[in-house]
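Reply to dn_fold:

You asked what the input looked like. This is it:
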Amino acid sequence: MRQKIATFWSQSYHSDPRAFGFELTSFVVTVAASLYLAVNARDPNMLAVYPGFLVGSVSQCYASYRRGAAWVMLLTFYFSVVNIFGFGVAINWW
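and this is what came back:
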């Protein structure tokens, strides 16, 4: 079982190292933003949350494009747009 997991991660990396790096960035930044939101759920500073989710969704969108994962790319593109809108609301742009 361990070998299958190691092979999965290795194949993911070796199939496209650049996409793997963007996926890793997306994971780390999105988890950090999500953790911040959970810890500060009573009164979160959305000016800190939205940029994290935006970086995470844009980097995953690009990685999905590189890997040819059309539906994942479409979903993360939508998340990117929604995060831009949410950030604009949080900063009173609209």
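The radius of gyration is 15 Å.
Hope that clears it up.
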